[in-house]
């Protein structure tokens, strides 16, 4: 009797535990983490176009509630010209003081099931230590076991207290165009 | 037993519940902590020179630097010589990034009509992350040849016209604004002024940069000589300056007691006393060009 009681107890708890474990994957894998990313910006100016690409950014998206976060290491931006990269880090972005740019927000305009959606993210964009509320539209493509996110948006340098010396004004556009592309797969905890 | 399993279930519930509410950003931070990434320290100095001497800064591969330096006459000559500006020692140089850690350069100075060539090799670099190295170390060596016409009574062959400099440049960027460099130096002179003079002259240089704004910095440089002949009115080189960065250009303006622009000259042949008002106005202007295939235009922003 005692053994049966014990056994049923163990079985009960085992069933409950397995249900708990099954819950996230069984219903929907709600958290997705990026495994590949590309953040680039382009600035068109009379004298010279400036372009840089960063492939070390990362992001997590919660499909269940649309919560999304991005983290972009500033030093990960690669320029064609090494001196530009140094100046970008040293003088413009001050990457030693502000090593990361982040976005924290919520995406809406999609359903958590396979398909292509035009979605909008509303949240806080932090660049160069200045956080601003922004709205960014983009595309989200949800596949059976992965998803892709694409967006393009302007960033006004003045908004983030990034100063351009007057001498160089014609050289650098006041607004740069940022393009992001992230590929995600389900986030699995250990 | 039942109680234990219930407790277990409750605990599990609680933990998943907490987990679901975890800040996504914290999770992302955890996931992206990369211990293998190396962060190199950039911009220890604004230019390849602190004032007269080399800094630990190297040009990237494929980058050509055109460097024009002037050291004017003595400020002490007053208005009649326009504070020395009537008389200039000029060095025109081309310096080139060959590999990630290797630069070479050639130059020509007005003073003594000297031709010089140098090799600069970075041994290791200040970095954080996978490895923590607190210093950047660069080995520098140069050769200079005096090409002035020989006095009639002197046998002045090529060897006698040649001087060599060997330096170890050790620098640390202590903060965004402050960098310091130490330069143990050996200058070998094939021909010395007097027979009792040493051919090998040892010196220790110290250089510092303090940034006052994002694009402007104050600099200081001093070379202490260990075995300077004391009967020839020689002084240690002392200089103060300002660095102004404007994108592709760096302007360096300074006051120095040295006329010479290259190592063997300003370290061992400085004949003016800075603190007695024997100063010279000088400047370095550098412009870098990308000459690799990837980019054909000059750097500027």
What is the fold's blueprint, element by element?
The complex is a heterodimer of chains A (190) and B (301).
Chain A: H1 2-27, E1 31-43, E2 50-54, E3 58-62, E4 67-73, E5 77-79, H2 82-92, E6 100-108, E7 115-127, E8 130-142, E9 147-156, E10 175-186
Antiparallel strand pairs in A: 1-2, 1-3, 1-10, 2-5, 3-4, 4-6, 6-7, 7-8, 8-9, 9-10
Chain B: H1 2-21, H2 24-32, E1 38-40, E2 63-74, E3 88-99, E4 102-109, E5 114-124, E6 127-129, E7 136-146, E8 162-173, E9 178-189, E10 200-211, E11 216-225, E12 238-246, E13 249-256, H3 263-268, E14 280-290
Antiparallel strand pairs in B: 1-6, 2-3, 2-14, 3-4, 4-5, 5-7, 7-8, 8-9, 9-10, 10-11, 11-12, 12-13, 13-14
Give the key terms.
heterodimer; A: 190 residues; alpha+beta; 8-stranded antiparallel barrel; 10 strands; 47% strand; elongated; B: mainly beta; Porin; 2 domains; two-stranded antiparallel ribbon; 45% strand
Structure overview:
The complex is a heterodimer of chains A (190) and B (301). Chain A has an 8-stranded antiparallel β-barrel with strand order 1-3-4-6-7-8-9-10. In chain A, a hairpin with a 4-residue loop joins strand 8 and strand 9. Chain A is an alpha+beta fold. Chain A is built from 2 helices and 10 strands, in the order αβββββαβββββ. About 3% of the residues of chain A have low confidence. Chain A has a single domain, classed as Lipid/polyisoprenoid-binding, YceI-like (Lipocalin, Beta Barrel), CATH 2.40.128.110. Chain B is mostly beta strands. Chain B folds into 2 domains: 31 residues, no CATH class; 245 residues, Porin. In chain B, the strands form 2 sheets. Chain B has a 12-stranded antiparallel beta barrel. In chain B, strand 3 and strand 4 form a beta hairpin. The longest helix of chain B has 20 residues. Chain B is elongated, with a radius of gyration of 26 Å. The C terminus of chain B is likely disordered. The chains are: A alpha+beta (190), B mainly beta (301). Chains A and B meet through helix 1, strand 3, strand 4 and helix 2 of A and helix 1 and helix 2 of B.
């Amino acid at each position: 009797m005692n053994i049966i009681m014990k056994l049923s107890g163990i079985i009960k708890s085992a069933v409950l535990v397995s249900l708990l474990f099954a819950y996230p994957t069984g219903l929907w894998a709600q958290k997705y983490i990026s495994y590949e990313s590309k953040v680039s910006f382009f600035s068109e100016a009379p004298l010279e176009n400036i372009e840089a690409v960063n492939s070390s950014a990362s992001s997590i998206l919660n499909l269940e509630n649309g919560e999304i976060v991005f983290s972009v290491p500033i030093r990960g931006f690669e320029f064609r010209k090494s001196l530009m990269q140094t100046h970008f880090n040293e003088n413009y972005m001050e990457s030693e003081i502000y090593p990361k740019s982040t976005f924290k927000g919520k995406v809406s305009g999609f359903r958590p099931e396979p398909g292509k959606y035009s979605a909008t993210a509303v949240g806080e964009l932090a660049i160069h230590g200045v956080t601003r509320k922004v709205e960014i539209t983009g595309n989200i493509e949800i596949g059976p076991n992965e998803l892709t996110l694409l967006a393009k948006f302007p960033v006004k340098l003045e908004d983030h207290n990034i100063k351009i010396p007057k001498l160089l004004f014609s050289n650098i556009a006041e607004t740069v165009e940022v393009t992001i592309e992230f590929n995600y797969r389900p986030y699995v905890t250990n | 037993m039942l109680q234990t399993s219930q407790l277990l279930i409750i605990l599990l519930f609680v933990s998943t519940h907490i987990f679901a509410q975890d800040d996504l950003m914290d999770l992302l931070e955890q996931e992206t902590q990369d211990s293998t990434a190396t962060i190199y320290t950039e911009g220890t100095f604004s230019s390849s020179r602190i004032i007269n001497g080399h800094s630990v800064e190297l040009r990237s591969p494929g980058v050509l630097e055109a460097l024009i330096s002037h050291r004017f006459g003595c400020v002490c000559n007053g208005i009649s010589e326009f504070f020395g500006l009537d008389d200039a020692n000029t060095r025109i140089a081309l310096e080139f990034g060959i590999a990630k850690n290797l630069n070479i350069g050639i130059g020509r100075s007005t003073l003594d009509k000297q031709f010089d060539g140098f090799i600069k090799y970075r041994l290791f670099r200040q970095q954080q992350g996978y490895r923590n190295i607190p210093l950047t170390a660069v080995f520098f060596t140069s050769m200079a040849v005096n090409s002035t016409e020989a006095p009639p009574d002197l046998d002045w062959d090529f060897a006698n016209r040649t001087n060599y400099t060997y330096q170890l440049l050790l620098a640390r960027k202590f903060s965004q604004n402050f960098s310091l460099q130490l330069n143990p130096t050996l200058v070998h002179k094939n021909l010395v002024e007097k027979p009792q003079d040493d051919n090998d002259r040892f010196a220790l240089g110290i250089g510092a940069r303090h940034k006052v704004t994002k694009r402007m910095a104050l600099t200081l440089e001093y070379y202490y000589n260990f075995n300077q002949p004391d009967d020839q009115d020689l002084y240690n080189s002392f200089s103060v300056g300002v660095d102004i960065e404007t994108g592709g250009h760096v302007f360096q303006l300074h006051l120095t007691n040295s006329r010479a622009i290259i190592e063997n000259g300003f370290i061992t042949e400085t004949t003016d006393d800075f603190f007695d008002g024997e100063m010279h106005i000088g400047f370095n202007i550098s412009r870098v060009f990308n000459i690799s295939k990837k980019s054909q235009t000059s750097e500027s922003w």
